[in-house]
């Protein structure tokens, strides 16, 4: 075994985070930035070194804790799916540090430490190949998030973190119980082995529900989404970016890593449940977004609607659906992160999230207006931007299984356009009516460095998505093989054509 | 041809990026030169391609550019396809676009954000070219949404105006309703054919005729379903009845935009789509019938509303909507050649009418209400003659094989629909003929109100401002009024001492060139587009051209041939009587039929209806779900309820709210560690 690169990936932010606690504010910022950039470099290396046609699990590491039958172990390894989510995380992290550069003034070293700890844990989630290791990373990641909202958040941060706590805690407990059962039944804590283990159908149903409780909260799916708007509103900008960008993706990752391959029959059994909840989410949260007067809440609700495309795609049980779901996760990670940054840019200047306090910003902030437009259009899924590829594939996949589901889901493109463009209108168009808003300067160089790279990635993913689809292709294929036996038939039931009759008809017409 | 094609499509994109991002650096003039130059190069390169196809010297071909999406069977490339149908669209788009670019040099000369305007125009042209060169439904959708974006940006170009912002939002959202259908159509097509490549779909379509498919719990005819879903998209983009409400409002955009996007090119994308997919539509009789009825109904509806509009741009907007209806019912009866021919000629004469209207508005100091025009014939003669050329074209003046553009294309449509012999074709013929009468009436009404009679300029606030040198707000704010609200206007006659001026050459050159198109386009090209032999040789399978129908349309009865001419003369006569001979007659007519007039002035109450059943309920429901759903139900019984249920409720909440952040973070961490150790212990 060569260099334990995944361990290094996790260790770098962990060590840097510990270091931060012993230095002053300015040094902490630089340490955090450098550490996250090192991780970004490692991520890019992984991307280039990953062999899409090679083994399923690459860069694997294994250190057993003790001997015996069932022993938890430090087992790391990634496939293409995990790889892409790691890239997303390491890409957004330096941007988060940059976004906190001046906005965070109190307890900077602790803040940076919390962020670096979170990065380490998030990466751990995507690298873990041991069930117990996964659980510790998965739940541990909540703690720094929790602190970030609770200490550096807005006026009602306590209430928000309380909600966040209750929801996630509830899901976690159920998942933990399910995991204990699985380990004792299958006799292993290895995720790859569990992915190939066939649980009896009755057990699957219960296990699936237990995992669902946890992942649905993380996603979040309707109706367990109400923690998200509050958490976003109260979190500092960088917290929102990482929450929307990466933490929400853990739910989707959980479904694709656990629910589908480990419980294929149960997943099929619960398709109606998932589709109904997702359908409600699209329509319900889009309408609620339309009525919002707080920028962050609006974008938070839009996240719920977008994540419903992910659940639709995942439970479509076909290639387009699964690849689409992954692309939505990546695209949404970039775009919602960017939108929260856009909110942060003007929040830092005016210290309000109320939409009505802005308006006409195209006049004094043209560069901001341009980038905000790019992300708005990406959010409504305009072709040529990242979100289109994902949404399109996910909906194609959904349609193959259920036309009803696709009809309901596709209404999202109408409502999405309505609430996002209405937001854009109220922020950037119209006249500059408020003197303080009119006095705001355009993007600084630092802000350009935060938003510019995301904009470039949004176009890259929208115009040449092959770079992102290719590493995942083989793994989606393996997953499809695994779930094939449970794949539902779909409601189209297409009959063969009767071209002969048509010709006769045409002949008669002449 | 490969390099040519790439240049035609990608130069405008490059120009848009340069002007849009670098406009501040390179300056206004450079931005205008770059964008206009890109489109002019495009036009110069497009005409030879078109002429090669006319002479049947060119073969259809596809240029692959880049891989796009590959997901299992779904394999899409960025590719540029050119065949006869595309060649027609290439010349239309590049020609009108480059003339509109040139026109904007003059029309927008006082605007402070010209680089942005020109960048948007070029971006639009790029998206439109991607649409017409699409080889797959996905790329067509890319162009489709791209032109929608450009349209949104340009309608809302004067973003200080609330009405412009509202119109832009409305255009985008209503188009999205169409795209909802289009998207489902693409999904369904992929499901049925396993591909989104247009040639592959068209080849396989006849084989699927008569099959059935499950959709939303029903069993329906496969091809009918797919065609109708795609047609919903076409209705949105081409402003057909039901989804037309955005087009008149889109006139909030600068006039060059109206000419390019909302008359000549973008709004015809729906017609283009139906023609491009014509072999698919041919497999479903039901779908064709629906297309015909929707087209004919739109044709009539928009023409009726057009007769009562007072805003010069809105008259032309409704006229556009109506002419698009003609194109659709032509496609619906299977006369794709005629549909495309009308699209082609309409692009020239409608762009001409809009640009002419812009020239009038320019001369009249941003006044758009025709009630304050009159007697402009002598003041702006070149504009006048250009507008007359456009009007002769749209009303279809011509006889015995000599005529203006519309004479050839509109007559071909009416004759084909009659010749099709079907019920829907016959209905469309009568509705279309009646709409032609109305077309003639409102078109001549526009000319008479604007250029003839006595000057009524004194009543206009804009003119008063200009004369009294009252400090104008920005020019963009000037035309902020809504003619739909028929506030009583006490038209004063007189010039108020105002002297309109003819527009600069940058405005007049495009008018003159488009006039040539309006006069000669029909005469020159009719044999290729709609001739029985010529059509077969020109289209060569790029649309489902029916030689049989083309023959039949030349053998319709005598009275059918002369109906368009007759109704044109009747419309002209009514307009002449009401607006020249007896100028008091319209008011008397309104007094006699107030409810009819109210119905028309409110545009058949579509906006009011949609506001009541979609817009308000959506906002109301959003608020309700938020307050009563999320906060009143889910939170109440979810997190808050949970706290109560575990019996620590109030105490815990108060403790937490008093700020012990670390405490529960610690609790959580301890719980986690406890749980983990318990697991390990238990497992062993």
Radius of gyration of chain B: 28 Å
**Oligomeric organization of the protein chains:** heterodimer
Distance between the first and last residues' Cα of chain B:
74 Å
* Uncertain runs of chain B: 470-488, 657-661
Query: Can you count the helices of chain A?
Result: 24
The total beta strand count of chain A reads: 2
Q: Within the largest sheet of chain B, what's the order of strands? A: 1-2
Say how many strands of chain B there are: 6
**Largest beta sheet: strand ordering of chain A:** 1-2
What's the story with the biggest beta sheet of chain B? 2 strands, antiparallel
Largest interface: A-B, 96 and 88 residues
Low-confidence stretches of chain A are 501-510
- The total tally of domains of chain B equals 2
Query: DSSP strand (E) fraction of chain A?
Result: under 5%
Share in helix of chain B: over 70%
| Main beta-sheet annotation of chain A | 2 strands, antiparallel
Can you describe what's shown?
The complex is a heterodimer of chains A (510) and B (684). Chain A has 510 residues and is an all-alpha fold. In chain A, 74% of the residues lie in helices and 3% in strands. Chain A is built from 24 helices and two strands. Chain A has helices spanning 5-20, 25-49, 80-99, 108-127, 131-140, 142-152, 157-186, 191-195, 201-218, 227-234, 237-247, 249-262, 264-269, 271-290, 295-314, 319-350, 361-364, 366-379, 386-401, 403-428, 435-438, 445-463, 466-483, 499-509, and strands at 58-64, 73-78. Chain A has a two-stranded antiparallel ribbon with strand order 1-2. In chain A, β1 (58-64) and β2 (73-78) form a beta hairpin. Chain A starts with a helix and ends with a helix. In chain A, 62% of the residues are buried. Chain B is mostly helical. Chain B has two domains: 2-456 and 500-601, no CATH class; 461-494. In chain B, 71% of the residues lie in helices and 5% in strands. Chain B contains 29 helices and six strands. Chain B has helices at 2-54, 84-107, 114-132, 137-155, 162-193, 198-204, 222-237, 246-249, 255-264, 269-276, 278-281, 285-306, 312-332, 336-363, 381-395, 405-419, 423-451, 461-467, 475-478, 505-530, 532-539, 547-553, 558-581, 585-592, 594-601, 606-637, 639-645, 649-657, 661-683, and strands at residues 61-71, 74-82, 212-215, 218-221, 398-399, 402-403. In chain B, α12 packs parallel to α17 (423-451), α15 (381-395) runs parallel beside α16 and α20 packs across α21. The longest helix of chain B has 53 residues, at 2-54. Chain B is globular and about 90 Å long. Mean pLDDT of chain B is 85; it is low at 470-488 and 657-661. Classes of the chains: A mainly alpha (510), B mainly alpha (684). At the A-B interface, α5, α6, α7, α14 and α16 of A face β1, α4, α5, β3 and α26 of B.
């Amino acid at each position: 075994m060569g260099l334990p690169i995944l361990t290094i990936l996790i260790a770098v932010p962990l060590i840097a985070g510990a270091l931060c606690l012993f230095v002053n504010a300015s040094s902490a910022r630089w340490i955090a930035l450098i550490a996250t950039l090192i991780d970004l470099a490692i991520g890019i290396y992984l991307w280039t070194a990953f062999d899409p046609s090679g083994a399923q699990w690459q860069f694997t590491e294994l250190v057993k804790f003790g001997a015996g039958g069932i022993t938890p172990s430090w087992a790391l390894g990634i496939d293409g799916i995990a790889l892409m989510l790691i890239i997303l995380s390491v890409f957004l992290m330096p941007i988060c540090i940059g976004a906190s550069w001046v906005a965070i003034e109190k307890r900077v070293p602790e803040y940076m430490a919390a962020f670096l700890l979170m990065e380490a844990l998030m990466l751990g989630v995507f690298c873990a190949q041991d069930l117990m290791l996964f659980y510790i990373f998965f739940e541990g990641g909540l703690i720094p998030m929790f602190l970030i909202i609770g200490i550096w958040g807005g006026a009602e941060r306590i209430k928000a973190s309380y909600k966040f706590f209750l929801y996630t805690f509830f899901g976690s407990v159920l998942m933990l119980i399910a995991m204990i059962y699985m380990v004792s039944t299958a006799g292993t804590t290895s995720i790859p082995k569990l992915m190939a283990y066939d649980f009896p159908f009755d057990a699957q149903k219960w296990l699936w529900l237990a995992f669902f409780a946890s992942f649905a909260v993380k996603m979040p799916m309707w109706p367990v989404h109400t923690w998200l708007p509050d958490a976003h509103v109260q979190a500092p900008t960088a917290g929102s970016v990482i929450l929307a960008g990466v933490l929400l993706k853990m739910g989707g990752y959980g479904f694709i890593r656990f629910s589908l391959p480990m419980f294929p029959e149960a997943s099929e059994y619960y398709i109606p449940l998932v589709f109904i909840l997702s359908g409600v989410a699209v329509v319900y949260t889009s309408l609620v977004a339309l009525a919002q007067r707080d920028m962050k809440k609006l974008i938070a609700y839009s996240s719920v609607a977008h994540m419903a495309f992910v659940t639709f795609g995942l439970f479509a049980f076909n290639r387009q659906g699964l690849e689409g779901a992954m692309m939505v996760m990546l695209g949404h990670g970039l775009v919602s992160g960017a939108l929260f940054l856009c909110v942060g840019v003007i929040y830092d200047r005016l210290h309000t999230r109320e939409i009505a306090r802005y308006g006409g910003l195209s006049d004094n902030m043209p560069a901001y207006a341009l980038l905000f437009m790019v992300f708005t259009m990406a959010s409504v899924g305009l072709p040529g931007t990242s979100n289109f590829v994902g949404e399109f594939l996910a909906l194609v996949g959904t349609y193959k299984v259920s036309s009803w589901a696709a009809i309901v889901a596709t209404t999202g493109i109408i409502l999405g356009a309505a609430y996002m463009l209405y937001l854009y209108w109220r922020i950037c168009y119209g006249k500059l009516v408020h003197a303080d808003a009119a006095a705001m300067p355009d993007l600084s160089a630092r802000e350009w460095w935060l938003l510019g790279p995301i904009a470039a990635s949004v176009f890259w993913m929208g115009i040449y998505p092959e770079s992102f689809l290719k590493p995942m292709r083989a793994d989606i294929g393996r997953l499809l093989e695994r779930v094939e036996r449970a794949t539902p038939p779909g409601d189209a039931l297409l009959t063969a054509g009767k071209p002969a009759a048509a010709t006769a008809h045409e002949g008669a017409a002449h | 041809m490969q390099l040519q094609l790439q240049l035609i499509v990608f130069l405008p994109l490059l120009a848009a990026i340069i002007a849009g991002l670098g406009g501040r650096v390179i300056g206004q003039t450079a931005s205008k030169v770059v964008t206009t130059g890109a489109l002019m190069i495009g036009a110069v390169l497009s005409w030879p391609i078109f002429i090669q196809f006319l002479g049947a010297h060119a073969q259809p071909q596809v240029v692959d550019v880049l891989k796009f999406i590959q997901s299992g069977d779904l394999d899409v490339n960025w590719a540029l396809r050119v065949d006869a149908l595309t060649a027609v669209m290439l010349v239309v788009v590049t020609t009108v676009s480059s003339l509109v670019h040139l026109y904007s040099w003059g029309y927008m000369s006082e605007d402070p954000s010209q680089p942005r305007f020109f960048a948007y125009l070029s971006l639009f042209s790029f998206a439109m070219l991607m649409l017409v060169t699409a080889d797959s439904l996905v790329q067509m959708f890319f162009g489709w949404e791209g032109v929608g974006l450009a349209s949104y940006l340009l309608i809302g170009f004067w973003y200080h105006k609330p009405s412009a912002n509202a119109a832009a939002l409305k255009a985008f959202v209503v188009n999205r309703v169409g795209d909802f259908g289009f998207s489902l159509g693409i999904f369904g097509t992929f499901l049925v054919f396993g591909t989104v490549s247009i040639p592959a779909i068209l080849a396989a379509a006849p084989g699927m005729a008569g099959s059935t498919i499950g959709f939303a719990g029903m069993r329906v005819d496969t091809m009918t379903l797919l065609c109708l879903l795609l047609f919903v998209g076409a209705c949105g983009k081409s402003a057909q009845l039901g989804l037309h409400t955005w087009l008149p409002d889109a006139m909030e955009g600068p006039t060059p935009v109206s000419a390019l996007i909302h008359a000549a090119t973008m709004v015809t994308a729906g017609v283009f789509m139906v023609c491009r997919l014509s072999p698919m539509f041919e497999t479903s009789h039901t779908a064709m019938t629906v297309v015909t009825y929707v087209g004919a109904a739109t044709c009539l509806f928009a023409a009726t509303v057009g007769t009562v509009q007072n805003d010069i741009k809105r008259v032309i907007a409704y006229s556009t909507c109506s002419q698009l209806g003609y194109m659709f019912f032509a496609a619906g009866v299977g006369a794709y050649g005629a549909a495309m021919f009308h699209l082609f000629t309409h692009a020239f004469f409608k762009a001409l009418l809009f640009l002419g209207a812009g020239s009038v508005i320019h001369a009249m100091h941003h006044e758009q209400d025709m009630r304050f025009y009159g007697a402009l014939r002598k003041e702006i003669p070149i504009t006048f003659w250009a507008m007359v050329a456009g009007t002769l074209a749209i009303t279809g003046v011509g006889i015995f094989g000599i005529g203006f553009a519309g004479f050839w294309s509109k007559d071909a449509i009416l004759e084909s629909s009659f010749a099709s012999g079907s019920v829907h074709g016959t209905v469309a013929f009568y509705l279309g003929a009646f709409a032609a009468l109305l077309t003639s009436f409102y078109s001549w009404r526009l000319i008479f109100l604007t250029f003839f009679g006595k000057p009524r300029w004194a009543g206009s606030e804009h003119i008063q401002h200009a004369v009294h040198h009252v400090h104008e707000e920005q020019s963009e704010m000037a035309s902020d009024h809504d003619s739909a609200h028929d506030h009583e206007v006490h038209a004063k006659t007189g010039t108020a001492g105002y002297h309109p001026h003819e527009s600069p050459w940058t405005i007049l050159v495009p008018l003159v060139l488009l006039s040539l198109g309006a006069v000669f386009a029909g005469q020159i090209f009719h044999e290729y587009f709609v001739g029985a032999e010529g059509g077969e040789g020109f289209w060569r399978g790029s649309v489902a051209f029916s030689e049989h129908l083309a023959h039949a349309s030349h053998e319709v009865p005598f009275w059918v041939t002369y109906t368009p001419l007759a109704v044109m003369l009747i419309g002209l006569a009514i307009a002449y009587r009401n607006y020249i001979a007896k100028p008091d007659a319209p008011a008397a007519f309104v007094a006699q039929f107030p409810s009819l007039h109210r119905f028309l002035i409110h545009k058949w109450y579509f906006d009011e209806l949609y506001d009541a059943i979609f817009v308000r309920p959506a906002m109301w429901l959003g608020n309700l779900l938020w307050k009563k759903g999320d906060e009143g139900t889910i939170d109440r019984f979810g997190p808050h309820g949970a706290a109560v249920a575990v019996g620590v409720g109030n105490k815990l909440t108060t403790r937490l709210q008093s700020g012990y952040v670390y405490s529960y973070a610690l609790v959580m961490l301890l719980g986690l560690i406890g749980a983990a150790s318990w697991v390990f212990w238990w497992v062993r």
